[in-house]
Each structure stands twice: as structure tokens, then as C-alpha cells.
Amino acid sequence: DDSYTLVKDGTLTVVAELGFAPFEYMNDQTGDPEGFDVDVINAVAEKMGLQCEYLPNQKFDTLVPLIKQGGKADVSIAAITITDEREESVDFSEPYLDSNQAIVALKGSTETEATLNDASKQVVCQGGTTGNDWITENLPNATCVPVDDVTAALTGVQTGLYNAMVVDLPVAKYMLTNSFSDLDIIEEIATGEQYGIAISKDNPNLTKAVNKALEDMKSDGTMDSIETKWFGS
Ligand code: GLN
Predict the structure, then answer these.
(1) 60 CA to centre of ligand 1 in angstroms
(2) What is the CATH number of the domain that holds 90?
């Protein structure tokens, strides 16, 4: 169908949860979203000859439902792990980054995976994430506390409100280096996750175009330079 348009008005609209540095966060000075994913989706849009526009911040567990429901945003890029369950609701682009989980606790804490698996232990996570699933499956006796905001969760670990947090490893590394120096990664969990861009099942041509853009970005060095910018060489 020649009249088929990938997106409206030449603008790729993006929805995300903007509290997940270094992938996406608000630059308080400029009021603009910034991060690895922001650079990726801007480059994708540029390859497609589109403008890129971020919609207002949304909670993480509403992103896949928002794309599924359609009409609001064309894509969601938010360090979203490709899972079978989510693939029932939305399509994903080809993977653009590998990831794992981390358990974070206070520096000097004696907690381990084993000690945390106890009803007296509060283990916090961002609600609806793969970290949330990991706690449910692997620490069935712990008290799992899903919250919306990762910074609030880490602050809670800092103040002793929670015994630990389970969160994506690259986010743990970045946030602990930049703002939570009194916290430590007590365990890395090799979940072997892959991030993908979520797109409505009603827009398969958009998924194809995004995949083409990602492929071009991998072969022309754009992806490498974005990775180097955010994660070093
Ligand atoms: N990668 C994790 C997931 O997809 C966490 C993503 C996030 O919190 N932005 O569930």
C-alpha cells in the first residue's frame, strides 16, 4: 500500500520512563531527555528522515501497554528487555544492547542472595521490570517491594528502608559511580537480557524501517560511537 505512512507528520513519537540513567533521564538544566537510548532513537529517526519527539514521562510498567493500545506513541525505548510475555503485546526491534541484573546493597553489607531470601528482608525494584520478575522467582521468601522510581529505591537502600535493590547492571554501575557511592553491587546476575525498541503490532512497516536503521547504525559506526560515549571504550 503506497499510501501507508510509517508515522504521522514526519515525527517519530517516543514514550519512556525518564529515570533510568544512563539510558534515559531528564537533563535538569535543559529540560530535555538525555542518555544512551535517546542518542539511539535520535539516530534511528535521523536515518529514517524523521524528527524525534519525546512525550511526557510515563511509569515503566505502562510503556508496553501504551504501545499496545496504540495512538499515543510510535515507539518506546527505555532499556526494555525483550521477553516472551511482552512479545505477546508488542513487537520488538532487533536487540540493540545486551544486559544483566545486579543486586545492590549498602557498602559493607553482609547480605547475599541466600540471606535476602527471607520474609524479614525488603528487596526493592522498579515495578513491572525483569528485576521485579527475578526477585519473585529467585527470592520467593523475601518481601519484594516494587516502586516507580529507581532513584527513590536506591535512596531507600541508602537509608536502610530496604535491604537491597535488584536493577539492570549497567544502571547500577552508572548510578553507583555518579551518585550513590555508599552503595555496592553485591552480586551480578547473568540473566542474559537484550534490549529492544517496542513498536505496535499494527505497524510492522515501522518495525522493519527501525531494524534497517539499526542495521545501518551498526555497520557505519554510529552504534559504536554511542556505546563509547556512554560506556567508554
Ligand atoms: N530492562 C528492565 C526491563 O525491561 C528494566 C527497564 C527499566 O526499568 N527501564 O524490565
Answers:
(1) 7
(2) 3.40.190.10
Same domain, 115 and 180: yes
Same domain, 114 and 54: no
Cell of 170: 549497567
The domain in which residue 70 lies consists of 8-96+196-231
Specify the residue with its C-alpha closest to ligand 1, atom 5: 129
* CB distance 154 to 104 below 8 Å: yes
Whether 52 and 163 map to the same domain: the answer is no
Ligand 1 within 6 A of CB of 133: no
Rounded to whole angstroms, how far apart are CA atoms 224 and 60?
Answer: 27
Establish whether residue 20 lines the binding site of ligand 1, counting it when its CB lies within 6 angstroms of any ligand atom: yes
Q: Is the ipTM of this complex over 0.85?
A: yes
The answer to whether residue 162 sits within a structural domain is yes
Ligand 1 geometric centre to CA of 1 (Å)? 35
Cis peptide leading into 22, omega within 30 of 0? Answer: yes
Which pLDDT belongs to residue 5?
A: 62
In this predicted structure, the answer to whether residue 61 has a pLDDT above a threshold of 50 is yes
Q: Measured from the CB, is residue 79 less than 6 Å from ligand 1?
A: yes
Q: Rounded to an integer, what distance in angstroms lies between the CA atom of residue 82 and that of residue 70?
A: 19
Mean pLDDT for 84-93 is 98
176-223, pLDDT tens digit by residue? 998 999 999 999 999 999 999 999 999 999 999 999 999 999 999 999
